[in-house]
Specification:
By secondary structure, this protein is α+β, with helices and mostly antiparallel strands. It contains 12 helices and 11 strands. It has helices at about 10-15, 100, 115-120, 120-135, 135-150, 160-170, 175-180, 190-200, 205-220, 225-235, 240-250, 255-260, and strands at about 1-5, 15-25, 30-35, 40-45, 50-55, 60-65, 70, 80, 85-95, 115, 270-275. Helix 4 packs antiparallel against helix 5 and helix 10 (about 225-235) crosses helix 11 (about 240-250). The radius of gyration is 19 Å and the shape is globular.
Length: about 280
Amino acid sequence: MIFEHHDLPASLGEHIEAIIYFKDFIPEHTIERVVPTGHIFLIFEFDNITRMTFDNASLKPLKHYSKVWISGMHRNFISISVHELSEMLVIQFKPAGSYPFLHVPVQDLNEKIVAAEKILGQEILDLRNDLLRAKNSKTKFGKIEKWLMNRLDPKKIPSKALVNLIDRLQKDPVSNLKTIIKTYPYTQKQLIQHFKKHVGLTPKYYHRIVRFNEILHNIHTQDAVSGADLAYSCGYSDQSHFIKEFCLFSGFNPREFVKKAFPKDEKNFFPLVRKG
């Protein structure tokens, strides 16, 4: 299997978390659960395999996606198909990083997975065709980088104040939320408007997603961990609140999740239906 990360120039690294290319992926499962991370993704498939989303409860197919699509900001987990010999390129935008490139307020993409041409027009399909003709991943990365630089609209870059606030939400405990919000140089109403436009969520809900991902990190990096310790370390007022939040974002009870011992290299993707 080929799995490569692109080294981003500083001008793109301010807005993009990662650009990843992989080929000949052979999973041991056919459906996986994806939990929210607070990011938006632009996804290219180069294998002509149609992807699907599923109803989270029944796992019945819902919608189909092919060529290029945008996965918007999701408040809860989703269920997607996984395929053998996949070849894909994924752009993961930083929180508040997609608007300068997609030119669509992030809240308009909430809870959606949409065909990229509906947002970006024919140019994104032309780009995919160009990427298909590229001889290697280095050439693909170069073409993606050039396209992103051409799409970057400086007028849609979030303010430094908003970026700093997002940074504090990622690092500070939940108990500091009110203090963090007070540092914003505009009204709370304006903050929510700016946050929804650039991030898609309210600051409070985004902070909840950050805290949930901190829990996943702790589970993955610690050999043995109790629900009570996790709840306390991540600032939950009580264990019942912690369990409720964990189920909301992952669909698993924390104890059930730990017992399943999911692979630690897949931090936000969890197998549901295994082959055979």
